[in-house]
Write a structure and sequence with these properties.
Layout lengths: L1 E7 L7 E6 L17 E8 L22
Antiparallel strand pairs: 1-2, 1-3
This protein binds zinc ion.
């Protein structure tokens, strides 16, 4: 995922919006929500998905036998 800050190219609107897309090409398809004009990319960053990389393993300590 890619995060981006877009700004409307209409000076009288100039709305900025943060979006997240799968690929950079998708940014070119985004129009301003307010006026429908073309948007310009101000900044781009990687969106890191918060997902565990591997199953979490827990160390289990064997319980000592109960003293009878
Ligand atoms: Zn606009």
């Amino acid at each position: 995922m890619i995060g981006a800050e877009l700004i409307c190219t209409d000076e009288s609107c100039a709305v900025t919006v943060d979006v997240a897309v799968d690929a950079l090409e998708h940014l070119e398809l985004l129009a301003c929500d307010d006026c429908g004009r073309v948007t310009q990319v101000l900044a781009v960053w990687d969106v890191v998905e918060l997902r565990p990389a591997a199953p979490v393993t827990t160390l289990r300590r064997t319980a000592p036998p109960l003293a009878a």
